[in-house]
Each structure stands twice: as structure tokens, then as C-alpha cells.
Amino acid sequence: MPSQTRRYSLLVALLSLLGFNAIASEPSLEALAAPLYQLEQKLSRHELDNGLRLYLLPLPNKQSVAISSQFAVGSRNETEGESGYAHLFEHMLFKGSENAPGDSYGQTMSAHSGYFNASTFFDATNYYVNLPSQALALALWLESDRFIRPRLSEETVRNQQQTVLEEMATTIDNQPYIRPAMTFLLNQVKDSPYGHAVIGSVDDVSAATPASLSRFHHDFYRPDAMQLAIVGDLPSQTLSWVEQYFGSWQKPSRPLAHFSPLAVERQPVRGEIVDSRGPWPGLLLAWHTVGTLDPDAAAMTLVEDYLLQNRTSMLEKLHLKTPETLLHYSVPLSMQHLGVMNLVLVPRAKVSLDELSQRITEMVDRLATQGVTSTELERLKRRWLLAQLSKLDNDVSLANLLSASQQRDKLNPLTAPWERISAVTQEDIKRVTQQYLSPGYVRLDLLPPWYIRWGKAILEWLPDGMSDSLEEKVL
User: Fold this and answer.
1) Secondary structure element (H or E) that encloses residue 15, with its range
2) What is the pLDDT along the chain (475 residues), one digit of tens a residue?
3) Nearest CA-CA partner of 259 in 288, 293, 289
4) How far is residue 181 from each of residues 200, 283, 308, 356, 392, measured CA to CA in Å?
5) Beta bridge partners of residue 333, listed in sequence order
6) Phi, psi of 145 (to 5 degrees)
7) What domains are defined for the chain?
8) CA 173, CA 108: separation in Å to the nearest integer?
9) Is the sign of the CA dihedral 174, 178, 181, 183 positive or negative?
10) pTM value?
């Protein structure tokens, strides 16, 4: 992206974060989107005979290269008794392959000043590495070796099981509310591929063996399930290296796993959990929306942004006008065939969970009936576009964006998503809010021990000044 455009984009983003209205001299959306179209012209697309899809994006004035590999395998591919396998197997792929046993992969990457990581979600598993371009051939050879020929010994499986179980304990089971809240939400779609946690259960992860993990690899790690993106200083031999190291990987005769959109019944659901470790009451709200492949996904993205996801959202305006929460946050979940808009709220002492729930209902109803103005809609599109443009300056982010692109966007992976966002109308915003949010939400009350609930109930009845003072002391 030209440096002048980059500087201007950063300025507009800063003004947006600070809550300023759009300034008269800012570029049009078409002008702002131009770098996406310009960069896409440099992109080459290839597909090997075995079905592996490849994006190559050479960038001038670079000395490094980013490699991102995304596989169409995640927790949705796991069968009963195998929950957590996709995540556990992600760990295993850093711990030895046929030609690079043990910790050779990490040691080799570190020796070449490379950094690497991976992530597992419901639909996919992503691996990335960034390193000097002169090490690209070596990196591709290492990537192919671990993806095609992983070595799963009893010792490495046992070690990585322990690592995953410790991660599970630290991030989920040792935290108040997390495991039961997660189970409650997943139970809303329990008969679907999205009905269990990505990290899995203690029992299933503990029961994994080299043989069962090898079967998982054989079934789901295949070239036609892989999308590879290489970005940066690309030597002229890059394509031939990919063909050399990945071309002999045989595509299985059986077809790829197929998944269909979920038929979700959108209606109010309410539950509660009591956790003896809970420090204070909280409220979790969740709306079942649409998956990323749905025609309404772009409009839903803008609705989530308008309601919850930025400093000028309706939620932030509500909080600034009547500060009723100590904390609130939202991390929307976007799977291919299911979306979940969620919100966690921790109330002030004077505010009940019912009052918070009512405020959010009113906020959604207002959007469903009034919609957004043309200026607000343009601002939403501009904010989405600026977020995409920010990824162009980071090779790893750009490579991950390309490797995660949808099959329908294979010819235009950078611009097709923007064109769907650009096409959203004011009527679309009202329609999707009415269709997916207005029918109701899943409400889960997160409750601490009785004596904390009792204390808070007293604070709700006290005068404001006294309750605020006691709230500070209690918390």
C-alpha cells in the first residue's frame, strides 16, 4: 500500500477510535479500497494436481517471507470420544516428523530467526511461520515433512497431552464460570458438529493414543484440504519448491467431509450457574446469527460492529450515558455454518442482571426498528475496510488472510469480501437484526456464592452514594 494512503488510513482509524465524525477531506470508500485491488493484481493462484491450493504474493523491499497453511479440519471433524483431537494434533505437529525428529522443527526455525505458531478452531487449523527469505526452501521442506509424515511416539503424545491438559486447566477449568458456561452454550447446538468445545474434554484428550491420532491425521490431513499462502520476498523457484515438496502427496479417493448450515431455533433461552469461586455476578448473552458462508454474513458483521464491537458502538454509548457495568466485552464467533454474537456484562452494585438484560433488549429493538443512517452505514463500512487494510502491512496477517479465504473467493480473495460489505444496504441492517437478533437470545446468569449474592442484593437497595462506596470496598 502506498505510504501516503497508509498514513491517511492510520489517521482516519485514530479519529474513529477517538469518536470523531468522518472529516470532509477523507477519501471515498472506493479510493480507500484501491490498495486491495492493486495488491490483488500481484497475486498468483495455483492448484497442484493433488488439489492443494496455493497463493503466491511477491512484495518488493522485503527480506523475509511468511508461510501460512490452513487445513479444513477442526473440532467439527471430531467424532464421539475424540473431542480435542484437532487441537492436540496441532501440538503434535511441532514435535517431530520423519526427517526432523523431536524438537528439530522449532530448533531449525529459531536458528534461522524464524517465529511460528498455530491455532485450531471449529472449522480449520492454521499454521504459520515467518523467516528470512533465504530459508524458504528449507521451511517448505520442513512444513511438508511434518504435514505429510508426522512422527507420533508414545512419549511425544504423552508430553503433549500433559501440555494440553495444563492449558485446559489454566484457561478453562481453574477459572470461575468458564467450563459450565461453555457447556451451556454448546448444549444449545449439541447435536451439531459445533456442539463440543475446541479444546475437548479431559477424558478424551487423556485417552488419545499414537494410533488414534494417526487415524485422525490420515483422515483429515490431505492436500485437497490445504490452502497455502506465501507472502514476501519470493525467490523465482518458489512455485517449483512447493511442487517438489508437496506435489507427491496423494489425494485420498474418498471425498472431503461435507457440512451443512445449522437449523437453529432462535427463541429466548434462560439458565443460571452458581460457582463457589465466582467473585461477583455476571450476565452472558448470546444470539445465534449466521455462518460466514451465509448471504447475510456481511450485513451481520456490520450489525455486530454497530451494536458491540467498537468505541462508538451502541453499547459504548449506553455505558457512557448510564454507567451500569464494571466490565463488558464481546468476542463474536464466526464459523462457516453458524455465528454467535455474544456479550458478557458485569454489573455495578446498584444494577441487577434483569436491568442489564432489559437495556440490551431495548438496544437491539431500537436498531431493529430504526436501523442506521446512511452516514452511520458508511462509517461502519469504512471501519471494516480500515481493519482489512491494516493487515496489508503485516506479512503474517496477510498470509493468514489469504490461506483462510473462502473457496467462492478464490479468484478475488482480497476484494470479494470487501465487495460483499460494500453491497450492504440500510434495509439489510434492519432486516438481519429483526431476523436473527429480535427473536431472542440465550441468557445465562453467572452467580457467585450465596453470601456475595446476598451482599449485592443489599447494595441494590441502598442510596447511590453509599452503595458506590461499599462497592469499592467489596471489590
Assistant:
1) helix 3-17
2) 444 444 444 444 444 444 444 445 678 999 999 999 999 999 999 999 999 999 999 998 899 999 999 999 999 999 999 999 999 999 999 999 999 999 999 999 999 999 999 999 999 999 999 999 999 999 999 999 999 999 999 999 999 999 999 999 999 999 999 999 999 999 999 889 999 999 999 999 999 999 999 999 999 999 999 999 999 999 999 999 999 999 999 999 999 989 988 888 888 999 999 999 998 999 999 999 999 999 999 999 999 999 998 777 778 777 655 676 677 888 889 999 999 999 999 988 888 899 999 999 999 999 999 999 999 999 999 999 999 999 998 999 999 999 999 999 999 999 999 999 999 999 999 999 999 999 999 999 999 998 888 877 777 776 666 555 555 655 5
3) 293
4) 15, 10, 20, 18, 36
5) 340
6) -65, -45
7) 48-246 (3.30.830.10), 269-474 (3.30.830.10)
8) 35
9) negative
10) 0.89
Quickly list H helices, 371-437.
374-390, 395-403, 416-422, 426-432
DSSP-based three-state secondary structure for 132: strand
Which H or E element spans position 167? helix 154-168
Tell me the residue length of the chain: 475
